[in-house]
């Protein structure tokens, strides 16, 4: 019996904000990103990052789904356009995610639906957003 060992990628991020300026984010692997706050400022704001995380996870999961369904040889890619509706009252939150999913390749509609459904089941971000995760908040 063959045992497959997968290397776990460090996950997490730290945000730093000075008295003036924008948040600066550094991932556990050294990726860096500046967050914007102005309505017309180009870049990512916190909600864009949430939508981006969901979109990226879904398309990565679509590729995994195509492989699990033995359709990877005809799968040429996927796109997820994610936005949402913000609640009008406090506590402010995204009340509804709106996802437009496209699956490309030599696949029929049924196969594309199978890929999308399985991708949603696989996606850690969508699974987390559908649950009520515990927050372990401490003051350093």
UniProtKB/TrEMBL annotation:
<dbReference type="InterPro" id="IPR015946">
    <property type="entry name" value="KH_dom-like_a/b"/>
</dbReference>
<dbReference type="Pfam" id="PF02566">
    <property type="entry name" value="OsmC"/>
</dbReference>
<protein>
    <submittedName>
        <fullName>OsmC family peroxiredoxin</fullName>
    </submittedName>
</protein>
<dbReference type="InterPro" id="IPR036102">
    <property type="entry name" value="OsmC/Ohrsf"/>
</dbReference>
<dbReference type="InterPro" id="IPR003718">
    <property type="entry name" value="OsmC/Ohr_fam"/>
</dbReference>
């Amino acid at each position: 019996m063959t045992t497959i060992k997968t290397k776990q990628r460090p996950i997490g991020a730290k945000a730093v904000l000075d008295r003036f300026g924008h948040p600066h984010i550094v991932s556990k692997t050294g990726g860096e990103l500046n967050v914007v706050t102005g309505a017309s400022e180009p870049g990512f704001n916190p909600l864009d990052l949430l939508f981006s995380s969901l979109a990226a996870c879904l398309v990565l999961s679509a590729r995994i789904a195509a492989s699990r369904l033995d359709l990877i040889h005809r799968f040429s890619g996927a796109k997820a356009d994610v936005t949402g509706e913000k609640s009008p009252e406090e506590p402010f939150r995204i009340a509804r995610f709106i996802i437009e999913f496209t699956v490309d390749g030599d696949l029929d509609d049924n196969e594309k639906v199978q890929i999308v459904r399985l991708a949603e089941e696989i996606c850690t971000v969508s699974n987390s957003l559908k649950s009520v995760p515990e927050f372990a908040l401490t003051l350093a």
